[in-house]
Amino acid sequence: MPEIVDEQIQEREHRRDIAEGLRGILAVLNSNKPLDAILDYITMYACRLLEADAVAVYRLQPETDLLKIQSSHGLSKEYLDHSTVTLGQGATGQAVNQGKPVAITNIEQALGALSQPVDPEMMVLLNILSKQFQSELSVPLIVKQDIVGTLNLYYANPRVFTQGDIDLAVSFCDQTALAIENARLREQAQQDAVAAERNRLARELHDSVTQTIFSASLIADVLPTIWERNPPEAVGALEDLRKLTRGALAEMRTLLFELRPIGLGEVGLADLLRQLAEGVSGRVRAQIKVLVEGDAILPTEVKFAFYRIAQEALNNVAKHSGADTVEIEIKSNLPATGRKSKKIALGQINFSESVSLSIRDNGRGFDPKRVIGEHLGLGIMQERALNAQVHLSIRSKPGHGTEIALRWPMPEKQSSPER
How confident is the model at residue 29, as a pLDDT? Predict the structure, then answer.
């Protein structure tokens, strides 16, 4: 009787360990770890909690119909060097073909009872397998009804697999399949983000640089004629040409910054704003001033929000406002660091100052209450501000210009990070 009680206690503890292990895997799945790291974590835990001597995750290569190991734990180098499996052969290949778990209680006996021909390479693998393990369980990995591989459990001693053993292995397979699908979705999201950024840059080139260069080429074409007829007017045209070319150069420089992985991150906000202003000046007949007060050192995500919103606001000035005066003013009452390139994070702030930015023009203005969110990019501005915890206000009135104001308040009295 005491032995039965001990077995029941051990069984309860074992199931609790499995439940905790599955919760741990879910936590890892929700992290930003790469797929290989997640699969290594799963194989390690599967080895321990399913009491296996080795575990492998095989992935199907659709173009070759071969199964190759993507992650493993406990397998020898000799096995890994010959681990490729042909579809339909061995427990691994059969599990994929049949779409259900394949269990072998005695590998050596199964090898001696083979009734179908086996590839020479596969025979080498099976011989290595039979020397190191006696039992194997291969469970198919299913992602959206497609079989993408297997989870294999290897045991050094002969083992009869119960339905409970198979069900537990299937649970780990479900977690593995979820990790693979999550990785695919993350990769797809990254590709979509890259495509969206490329489209944005293409629009910027068309809306700004291309049109600026086209305007400059028109002036250059007629300049000789104007010079012959009216030299003073030609001087003014030359000044316009100079502004257009300087503006196009500034906008190209800004786009090149954005193409570099760390381009925008390594440039100070004030310099970025000056670059934006110089670029827009080539497209508008307006005087643009940039006023800087203090050293605006911001967390990267906040600086990017300031930059993108300012970019959207200046594009609106160029396209819609008809202004002849634009002021960009950035104020910061943060303590001077003496290092403009210093980076800070939200958790490193222990004072309650703020950084503000305003973009004012004396253009035609509009009624914010009668403009839908997507018009003039207002919805995009508001979304960027919300994501970066930046306060955004838009003040405008028909005939009285527009002001876009941003303020990022520092969190108050946060503890400094541990060093």
Answer: 63
